[in-house]
Amino acid sequence: WLGMRGLFVFGVKSLLTVCNCGTRVVPKRQLCSRAMDSTQNFLQFLKLVGNLKHLPRTGWVMRGVKDPETVASHMYRMAMMSYAIHPSETNMDMTKVLKMALVHDLAESLVGDITPYDGVSRKRKRQMETDAMVKIAKLLGRNKTEVVMLFKEYENQKSAEARFVKQLDSLDMRLQAFEYEKKEGMPGKYQEFIDSTEGKFTHPDIMALVQEIDRERAMFADANGVGDGDILLDEDVVKIDEEEDASRREMKLKVESGVVTSKDEVEKKEKESLPEAEPIIQLDGKKLSESPDKSNH
């Protein structure tokens, strides 16, 4: 009888375990199921991140760039900038800057890289990306709230960290445009991308990098016989590149016919419109609110 009793107790203990709080007994099978769900969710999260490795950035695709950078490669260099740069004078949380650089375009793993030419309003784009971030965050464990809050802080552009990451974003575009010009041996070909970043730099360390990029770009132009004011115009590029990407040709026709306005005009109209309400973010039934910015910057 004692042997049977011991076997029974052993069997019960093997099926039950105590949860972390130590106040109630939970079937081990249930805990194993939770662990499996957590592992499966995290694997799904990694697959979504993997999508960004193969998602080319739309702006370069529309411009006819061959083998354009992906969203993941763009985010990686931004993250490396955040890690390697050492601002001379700052009270910023550089760990937060690094994390923000890693998640700022994460929503594109679900919604893609949306541009002003896609016919999606800024309000709709932000809501789509916010919804995507909530879905992605639900695949994570303890970091899910932080991921959504970092994205929200970046979008709101109220903190010093968010503004710094935004400038890194523009810096990477400026550098990438120059790199494509050098790769193709065509100074000034991507001037429109350079122009789109003008006036967006305020941090002294980033401005120093911008000046160095511009200096090297000017030297490259001089070495290739292109002087000031002699950058290639869009129509010149079209004549030179007869095999221009089909999507670029289609967009050019839409702009010329007035079906789609230029990027600058789209942004101008959006700025002139009334301020839009901030998307409501709910995670696990709770409304998330951004922590107040305590930075003096």
TrEMBL record:
| Required cofactor names | Mn(2+); Mg(2+); Co(2+)
Q: Where is the signal peptide?
A: 1-21
Q: Name one GO biological process term.
A: deoxyribonucleoside monophosphate catabolic process
**Which residue ranges are recorded for the region named Disordered?**
257-297
Q: Does the keyword Cytoplasm apply?
A: no
Annotated ranges, domain HD/PDEase: 67-183
What would you give as a GO molecular function for this chain, any one? metal ion binding
GO annotation, cellular component aspect: cytoplasm
Pfam families hit by this protein: HD_3
- What is the annotated quaternary arrangement, including any partners? Homodimer.
Q: Give the protein name, as stated in the record.
A: 5'-deoxynucleotidase HDDC2
Species per Swiss-Prot/TrEMBL record: Lygus hesperus (Western plant bug)
State the taxonomy lineage: Eukaryota, Metazoa, Ecdysozoa, Arthropoda, Hexapoda
Q: Which gene encodes it?
A: hddc2_3
